[in-house]
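Dig into what follows:

_____
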Amino acid sequence: MAYNAFDLSGKVALITGGNGGIGLGMAKAIAAAGGDVCIWGTNEKKNADAIEELKEFGTKVSSLVCNVADQKEVQDCFAETLSQYGRVDGCFANAGVSGRGQSFLDMQDDEWKRVMGINMDGAFYTLQEAAKHMAERAKAGDPGGRLVGTASLAAISGAARNEHYAATKGGLISMLKAMAVEFAPLGITANAILPGWIETAMTDPLFNWDRFSDNVLPRIPAGRWGNPEDFGGIAVYIMSGASSYHTGDTFLVDGGYFLY
């Protein structure tokens, strides 16, 4: 008999920042495994283009324009997601921005708040709405639910000139660990995904800088940069019944970079 725990038919995933990069890589895999997907993003055209790519898998897909740094927008968009799908089984707080690579000595308050607003506050607003929904379902006899945050290798390594970015990702990991303990009795898991050096629009400027690529690429044991598709398998696993007893973890997806 085939092992069918990874069949996501009937499950619904919400992925913020799902219109490109790692988020879209996860969305494609979830849809390919039979799951329905709602993506949130701030760029309406990118959202529409992503939906066209996701349609090929034949599941229900849709997008909403949402700035996760705005709590009211998050609340409204979550309500609309529930209106469209009736439930959210997995919430991936994936939306984020990078820092601008300036010395901690020169960092201005507006830059600190820009990164905190999206990466930390946005994840809090999103995961809180999802947790409320999943807790209500569990108390009504429908336990389960997956809370997921996209953190970063920067959370556990020294990211010079990106202290604000690193702080948001470290904070996200700690928040998810606390949520894992709080919501485990309701059958809800909470885990963090830590990408290493992944080829996305966010990392293009670095990867096109010869000095950076010449120094960093040789340190990756896998011998290549990561790509969004490398996050499909972990997203499907987390969404599936196979991960129901796996919570509070940090999934490092970096081709062995941190170990080397």
Q: What stands out?
A: The longest strand covers residues 189-195. The helical segments are 21-32, 44-54, 71-85, 109-139, 163-183, 204-207, 210-216, 232-239. The chain has eight helices and seven strands. The chain has a mean pLDDT of 96.
